[in-house]
Each structure stands twice: as structure tokens, then as C-alpha cells.
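Hey, can you fold this?
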Amino acid sequence: MVKYGLDYTRCRWILPLLLGIGVIFGIIALAGWGWLESQTLPYVLQASLWQICRRGDQGGEWNCESLMGYAWGRAAAATYLVGFLLLVICFALAIIAFAIDTLRFNFIRGIGGLLFVAAVFSIMGLVIYPVKFSSEIEMTGINMFSWAYGFGWTTAIMEICLGFFFCCLPNYEDQILGNVKPTYFYSSP
């Protein structure tokens, strides 16, 4: 990307594209039912960020209870949701920043800083949830944190990594804009 500059059409949209993938992963984590599930038979427990559902050992109907009745449930949902909203804002700002012909590199560095703030909020929600869930809710059998919880962590890791990319990109401003005089390694005989 640095070799061809951000005017190279295939490279210009890589960072906003990765942010868009992070937004999709965040939506999957917010809407997914696989935050916590029973690992072995009988499958009696299933939880999302928003509610927990239990079923008796003999099967039957699922009985669901909202996690918003717990202070820690509201805190986990709120902090993860704030991190997700900041990610969506960064995605919109990145599209605006890379759509403008003249890049504003300080603007890009600000997006990186906002991504770090989003990562902090996301990680707070992802830590509060399992710690308080396992200590305050009675669980039977063997349970595991599952696929939707993994998508939440993937989103947080993407926020951190993309934050580094957005913050470091202005360091190569001259190379990206083509303002550096080429160096030739030629020696005469």
C-alpha cells in the first residue's frame, strides 16, 4: 500500500473495508444467541448478551429471562454497545476520509484514536459478561462461551489492530503522496 500510495485504487479502500467487516462481526455478536451454551447433553442453557434461556432436564419449553434485570447485564450490554457505536462512527468517518481526494492525515489519526476508545469499551463489556455471569447465575452441566462471544472478541481485536494502522499511516505521508525523492543505488565503474 505504501509503495503505490493511497491513490492506487485497490489499496485505498482496504482499511474502510476491514472496518466494515468489523461492523458486521459486531452485529453478529450483538444479535447472536451463542454467547453461552451448554456443551454436553442435555442442552439446558443458552444465553445471549440480552437474555438467558433454560430448559428442564427432561426437555420441554425454554424459559427465558432478561439479563437487563441485573446491573451487570445492563453494564455489559451498554459498554459493548457503546464500543460498537463508536466502531460504526469510525467506519463512516473512514469512508469520508478516504473518499476525499486530498487526504487529511490528522483526521485519519483521530479515527485511530477513536478506534482505541471503542476497543476499551468493547473489552469492558466482554470481560464483565463472563465474570459476573458465572458468579451470579446458577449453571448446570458443562457450559462454554460460544461463537457469538467469539465474534465479540474478534471485533475488539480488529478495533485494536485497525487503530494501530490508522495511527501509523500518517507517519508515511510523504511516501503515500509521492513527495519522496527516489534513491538510486548506482555506482559508476
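Oh, and this one too while you're at it.
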Amino acid sequence: WFWFLLVSFGMAGLSMDFSVLLEPLGFVKVIEWIFAIFAFASCGGFQGETTLLVSCEGVVNKTVTAVFAYPFRLNAVEFSAPDPKGCAGTWTDVHLMGNFSSSAQFFVTLAALVFLYCIAALVVYIGYNHVYQQNSKFPLTDLSISVLTAFLWLVSTFVWAKALADIKVSTGASIIPGIESCKAPGTTCHFVSVTSMGILNVSVVFGLLNVALWGGNVWLVYKDTKLHNQWNRISESP
């Protein structure tokens, strides 16, 4: 199919028509392109840190931080040691818990692929719209991709939303009971802060918006296919 489309468009000749962008099919594709960028950037560009205050017997209180970022392999993130000797050698390597890279990468990779597909689709709509309208195979292919994309946005968004909820738990105050070094005699740990994850919440919102957009896109593309025309003829027949 891919090579068939390339050959067909290559033989048809380029005919620029930017008025397509004012029509629902082209306009929605531009919005999908923009929203894919926001989904990608809001998740893939995040970096934060968790800070604890460690009190060791006989030494000044010190803060320790664990810096984490996309793709959120938290189990590879280590807290900086406050002073192993000052804590009587009780402070060992301490890591955050959990690996959420598969969920985060699924979401970001889909956003990147959708970004590229939207560019390709806009090139077809603007430069080869006459071919797209004349050959019924192109709208059917576009419809299949749109249905698959809407489904993948739905799955990836809910998977990422669940992972984000777990990330908040794994970087919040609940991590202290699981740190063995904080249980040593004369050593206490207090949760100080964690970087706000509002931008990650925004990424989930853009994921849901993409689900809605691509669901609407399915209907817009469907109206250009022979399936819709056949249904109209059947419904109008006596």
C-alpha cells in the first residue's frame, strides 16, 4: 500500500490547493498536528526532583535529592548521600522505586508518529487532493489509519495516566517508610518537596483531546469513502 500510494501520487503531479485547510478535514488535521506536538513536549521534556531532609546523630541536617526525568526509570535514580561517615556508615545507596518507561515511551512515540503522519497527510491534502478525491482507495486507507490512531491514543493515554499516578506516589512522601537508611538508629528523614507535575497532567489532557479529535476525524474521512456513498444509496432506495 505504501509504495502504491507513493507511485500514484508521484505520477499524478503536484497541484497546490491551500483552500483544503479551510475545510473540516484539513483544518482538523492541522489541529491534530499541533496537539501531537504539545502531547510530545509536555511529557518528553519533563524533569523534576524529590527532596528529603536527613538528620543524622551528631551532624547538621542535610538535604538529599533524587533527580528524575523522562522516560521515568525511577529505579535507576539515586538520592545523593548526605554524609555516609557522619551517619555512622548507615546511609547506603538509596533509589526511587518503579520503572515507568514503557508507558511514557508508548505515549511519546505515538505522539511523534502522529506528528509525522499529520505532515504527510497535509502534503497529500494540499498537493494531491485531486488524486485523493478521485481514487476511492486513498480515503479508505486514511480511514483505516484514523481508526487505528484514535484507538492507540485512547490506550496510550489511559496507560500513561495510570503510570503518572504511580510516579506521583513513587516520588512523594510515601517513599520514606521504604528507605532502610532512614530507619537506622539516630537517623530520621523528613519529606521536603517534589517538583510540581502539572505539565504531566497537561500531557494527559492533550492525550484525551487527541482521542476526541481523531474520533471526529474518523467521521470526516468516512464521509469521503465509498462506504458512506453506498450507505446513502441504500438508505435512499425505496
